Amino acid sequence: MLSNRFQNGMETARLVWSRLPRSDEGDLDGVGLLSTTSNRNCVESLDYEVIENYAYREEQAQRGKLFVGYNVGMKWFFALLIGIGSGFAAVFINISVENFAGWKFSLTFNIIQKSYLAGCLIYILINLALVFSSVYIITQFAPAAAGSGIPEIKGYLNGIDIPGILLLRTLIGKISGSIGSVGGGLALGKEGPLVHTGACIASLLGQGGSTKYHISSRWLQGFKSDRDRRDLVTCGCAAGVAAAFRAPVGGVLFALEEVTSWWRSQLMWRVFFTSAIVAVVVRAAMGWCKSGNCGHFGSGGFIIWDISGGQEDYSFEELLPMAVIGVIGGLLGALFNQLTIYVTRWRRNYLHKKGNRVKIYEACLISVITSVISFGLPLLRKCSPCPDSDPDSEIECPRAPGMYGNYVNFYCNKEKEYNDLATIFFNTQVSRIF
């Protein structure tokens, strides 16, 4: 009897303590509620469990049906806002990358008409400026935005509170870093950062904005517990995948299979609703870009999976070459992963301990090497004659300088020729596929 009373007293005290306002609430700005200003760099755990003791059940009993309906409606409203915000963020990143790349390619091709050496220097300098701007912002302003962000979000959704990963400055750094690195020609993608971007948007909406930068709204501050914020961040992760690949079901499966270890049916419907909203926003942006309102690259950089003109059947003789290619690809992939582990350990243990300046030098050096390779390899490749095009087709061979698509005329002696390697390197990542 005495032990039961002592246990109930401890649970009641814990519940009362959890409701006390934090003195450092204004400085958290997206960090878990268990962090403290005295030890902000320490990684702590998040409490996703609800203690269903007597006080909790009594409080739930006092709430009427109106409050329950309001709570459920607000969760769906937040799912709508997360989908709209993530969709607009993806549209902004795609259009910015496409236009930066379009200006870069257009200027480069205009200069190489007079001198290939001058065009190479301009191409290297533009890429270097874009990469330098992104790495400077990351190292000096938002260090938590480095990398894809998916491992950090996985850790957060599984109970690990990593300081700084959901801040407003992290969101700004993630967006600007994606634009600079991808637009600068690095072998990177914006799909992983979009997951982190969606999670940041969801977290900021859940806490009503950023209190540190005085950009907040009290009427949005409806969900303060760790479990409610976890659900919002889960919706944001799915929204990022849906924005990257225009796949609502893919966003739901990614959130279910990859990033979370706890799930329920109510959350699944909200996640799917958020992903569907993102798909609608991206689809509307694609229609707007097709009319030529997105700048140099009319497609807007959105992935459009169209297999209507593909091969519908295969022959038995194709199975063996496909198996051989699969084995070779698997071995090369394993070798690549192992080399990546070694290089990452060396960079972490020796290179990055020397400060942020070394990180900036490293990124700039990689940018210069990448630019030299992408500009120099097409010079070693012979040009191919343009195929006979369909008069009704919109495909033009060769393409006009600075425009996206196939058949890029680069270092060719004849007008009706194209360089296949230049077609790969002098296009954005999405335009290379199509």
Automatic annotation (TrEMBL):
<dbReference type="GO" id="GO:0005247">
    <property type="term" value="F:voltage-gated chloride channel activity"/>
</dbReference>
<keyword id="KW-0868">Chloride</keyword>
<keyword id="KW-0406">Ion transport</keyword>
<keyword id="KW-0407">Ion channel</keyword>
<protein>
    <recommendedName>
        <fullName>Chloride channel protein</fullName>
    </recommendedName>
</protein>
<keyword id="KW-1133">Transmembrane helix</keyword>
<comment type="similarity">
    <text>Belongs to the chloride channel (TC 2.A.49) family.</text>
</comment>
<feature type="transmembrane region" description="Helical">
    <location>
        <begin position="267"/>
        <end position="286"/>
    </location>
</feature>
<keyword id="KW-0129">CBS domain</keyword>
<feature type="transmembrane region" description="Helical">
    <location>
        <begin position="116"/>
        <end position="138"/>
    </location>
</feature>
<dbReference type="InterPro" id="IPR014743">
    <property type="entry name" value="Cl-channel_core"/>
</dbReference>
<feature type="transmembrane region" description="Helical">
    <location>
        <begin position="319"/>
        <end position="339"/>
    </location>
</feature>
<keyword id="KW-0677">Repeat</keyword>
<dbReference type="InterPro" id="IPR051280">
    <property type="entry name" value="Cl-channel/antiporter"/>
</dbReference>
<keyword id="KW-0812">Transmembrane</keyword>
<dbReference type="InterPro" id="IPR001807">
    <property type="entry name" value="ClC"/>
</dbReference>
<keyword id="KW-0851">Voltage-gated channel</keyword>
<feature type="transmembrane region" description="Helical">
    <location>
        <begin position="360"/>
        <end position="380"/>
    </location>
</feature>
<dbReference type="InterPro" id="IPR002251">
    <property type="entry name" value="Cl_channel_pln"/>
</dbReference>
<dbReference type="Pfam" id="PF00654">
    <property type="entry name" value="Voltage_CLC"/>
</dbReference>
<dbReference type="GO" id="GO:0034707">
    <property type="term" value="C:chloride channel complex"/>
</dbReference>
<keyword id="KW-0869">Chloride channel</keyword>
<keyword id="KW-0472">Membrane</keyword>
<keyword id="KW-0813">Transport</keyword>
<feature type="transmembrane region" description="Helical">
    <location>
        <begin position="76"/>
        <end position="96"/>
    </location>
</feature>
